[in-house]
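Entry 12.
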Amino acid sequence: MTVFKPTRQSRAPYASDPYNARGRAIAQPSGSERSPFQRDKDRIIHSSAFRRLKGKTQVFVAHEGDYYRTRLTHSIEVSQIARSIARVLGLDEDLAECLALAHDLGHPPFGHSGEDALSAAMAPYGGFDHNAQTLRIVTHLEGRYAEFDGLNLTWETLEGIAKHNGPLVRREADLKTLPWALRAIPDFEALELHTFAGPEAQVAAIADDIAYINHDIDDGLRAGLFTIEDIMNVPFVGDAFVDVRRRYPDISRDKTIHEAVRDMIGIMVADVLAETRRRLEKYDPKSPDDIRNLPEAICDFSADFREKERPLREFLMTRMYRHYLVNRMMGQASRVVGELFELFIADPSILPTDQQAQAGGAHEIATARVVSDYIASMTDNFAIEEHRKLFTVSGYLSR
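Predicted 3D structure (tokens):
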């Protein structure tokens, strides 16, 4: 019987090489069964923060319905797209998938409304940023391992998380303007925050764009916030629906939506691949560091597609993200987060025992940051239930 032994995947010269990675903060033996990036991915999947994503909203609050996407289902869909793109480009698929799965770990409950509310509450205490919070989770807050706090991920994974949206600073003097959660990471300057991320991180970021745009269209249509007819005049999207109806004139509305979304994802991935190949030919990078130091991202949509995409983003902003039903829901969500923060700051004694032990007593900044970590970790339903318990007379009496 022949025993299968995994080998290094065939990769491009500019791909990240897990066997020549820059290492972890606490050195660990690599092992022969999994590459360092595979271990990072596995640690993300087994983390508490990753499991909690199933209860955090994408656009709709989690209790609105089981069908709509959560941060967890979104992250899984991003990882599938990222892995597919990485494979075609000869990049490290495990690193691309790892970064896709990790990119939303730091989101608080209730999506962008929850983040806006927590950012406003934390403004006097160093602010709040979900990307920085993701780094705080994987370097400090996850408490699963005997030898270290956090997940002790590789430099390449930490860098990709930090620079999910591109370079964070232009010069060293700008480092002091970064969110406190990022600056609290030991030796955070070593993440080279003035450069672009490595190629796998750029793939994960563009996969995030592809996933959320298409799946927000899907969720918005199925929620009845707009109709197929409403979106027919939007460039690129309308063409996809026209083509599906031409090919399949007799299928149901649900199948029409599914086929159109499939086609749009395929069109966007094809555009990214074509544009990325054009830039690879232009710059001819020989290493991941060559890509980090380029004057622009290596992985992106074409300028032509960016023009087509703009009316779609405007449509979703008007017809979905600012729809009055979503506004009502997110207005309530924002109040829940803001009121919980104010109450916990005013009376830290009502925090759970573990959080009380970490709070700073008379040191308001330390207490605020513990409160921020606690609220950011909450799922939508847990935050709603905490608010009910603490702000209604019958909250605890009805338990």
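Annotation: Residues 117 and 337 are 6 Å apart (CA to CA). Residues 203-324 form one domain.
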